[in-house]
UniProtKB/TrEMBL annotation, chain A:
It comes from Rhynchophorus ferrugineus. Belongs to the small GTPase superfamily. Rab family. Residues 193-215 have a biased composition (Polar residues). One of its GO terms (molecular function) is GTP binding. This is Ras-related protein Rab-14.
From TrEMBL, chain B:
Keywords: Apoptosis, Membrane, Mitochondrion, Mitochondrion outer membrane, Peroxisome, Transmembrane, Transmembrane helix. Belongs to the FIS1 family. It is found in: Mitochondrion outer membrane; Peroxisome membrane. It is a single-pass membrane protein. Involved in the fragmentation of the mitochondrial network and its perinuclear clustering. InterPro entries: Fis1, Fis1_cytosol, Fis1_TPR_C, Fis1_TPR_N, TPR-like_helical_dom_sf. The chain crosses the membrane at residues 121-146. It comes from Rhynchophorus ferrugineus (Red palm weevil). The C-terminus is required for mitochondrial localization, while the N-terminus is necessary for mitochondrial fission. GO terms for cellular component: mitochondrial outer membrane; peroxisomal membrane. This is Mitochondrial fission 1 protein. GO terms for biological process: autophagy of mitochondrion; mitochondrial fission; mitochondrial fragmentation involved in apoptotic process; peroxisome fission.
Amino acid sequence: MSTGPYNYSYIFKYIIIGDMGVGKSCLLHQFTEKKFMADCPHTIGVEFGTRIIEVSGQKVKLQIWDTAGQERFRAVTRSYYRGAAGALMVYDITRRSTYNHLSSWLTDTRNLTNSSTVIFLIGNKCDLEGQRDVTYEEASKFAEENGLLFVEASAKTGDNVEEAFLETAKKIYQSIQDGRLDLNAAESGVQHKPSQPGRNNLSNDQQTNRDNCAC
Amino acid sequence: MADILSETVEQEDLKKFEKIYHEQLSKNDVTIKAQFDYAWCLVRSKYPADIQKGIMLLEDLYTTNEPGQRDYIFYLAVGNARLKDYSKALGYARSFLTIEPGNQQVISLERTIKKKMEEEGLMGMAIVGGAVLAIGAIVGFGVALAKAK
């Protein structure tokens, strides 16, 4: 889009999935705006957010597709899974049904993404301890059995929200370093943007020279 | 390369939902879901003719199915913005916001549309600037011709 020098070296594509009302958009909003949306209406289709983060000294732009949880959108939202480098799979710790549906979300994710896609399980609304319907141990075991990263988080208080997004990026970056993720593959979900060092400096220098000119 | 107004649908996905829609159409029994799924893919196409068709399908849904109006207005705003009919797109976004004033998804869409307008406004000026230079060159050429006589 822009021809100017990029201020990041990589783009990672994320998707956020899970049942309706588990707080996917609130997690995204907390991560991108550092605010809690108290009154969060149902997402229409998909919502999009970005944020630039730093992983091992590299600037990474996260492009996050937050999918609507309502069943009627599910057929088309599946097309957004393609080429995701990271998938945040969310359930609500106070509603058991949202946890019970995880295997169906996981099947979709495995079928529609590639083998190097990092899947992070998030048990949202951990601030509502009194209404808990799914134990930490149970979800943790499910995550372990399926090779998923896992935290309980709260979009309301912000607890563990940063961690989930950043840990996913770290894991993706590791896969690149290890050579497990092929940057040239069309559906890796990662783009490398070589930075152009010195370009800004050059124009600054020219500016300085002009200012110093006595004529 | 990616935001809600510039990401494009994969052809295979568009074809998939097109097929479902046309099968139902041939039986004269199109479901709201099939029409919406197809329209949603069409407004994300890279071809303006597809987007136009998607808008028509959404306008039709809007008048026939009240419960889904929220979804249709949103994608009517997206479709019109993609066709660069920004005033119409902003009109849809604003009418959405009169009903749901705090909707972040629509506020963010409105922001993206305005950003696109600004970017293209600058591009428009660049084109005008280019035209002025071109006219200048023609005038200069005319002067040179007159002098040669």
